[in-house]
Amino acid sequence: MTEHDPFNEPEIAHPRARELMREPLFWDCVDEGAPFGSDEGSDAYYEWRNWRSENPDAPLTDCFDWILDGNLDAYNETLASDAQIEIDLANPDDAFLSDQFDMFTLDTTIIATGLGQLMDEGRIDEDAKPFIYVAIKRQRNPKAGHYDSTTLDAIARVVDES
Description:
Elements: H1 15-20, H2 39-54, H3 60-67, H4 82-90, H5 103-121, H6 129-140, H7 149-161
Helix pairs in contact: 2-5, 3-5, 5-6, 6-7
């Protein structure tokens, strides 16, 4: 996979990504409130690219499973419930994969990785979308989320339409 910077050169991103990712926030690599603007989101995109170069034919869910340290099935709707988020925020050391991620970092990593596939390949694997929706739902919780609702709505629309 060639090295490129779609944030400064959006014309090199896949045409389908440019079509779906209409809002400037998708191309902003400095705004902490944008999917790729935080260090976590930017790092996730470039880690996706490295992973893809080593796993050219693997589904995106394999990358998610790698990110989640083999716990793909555990990253599900139950983590996005208000009750579970309250528990995780009250006891962050006991939260899902807390030894590796805080909630924002994990959710941002999943979102940016999924959007990274779209940016590079023009699609998001259908079986990977439920995991991105979990991240979006967790980030919609006002106590846990770092993204505003407009950003999350745009991300959800892109995932839906990809």
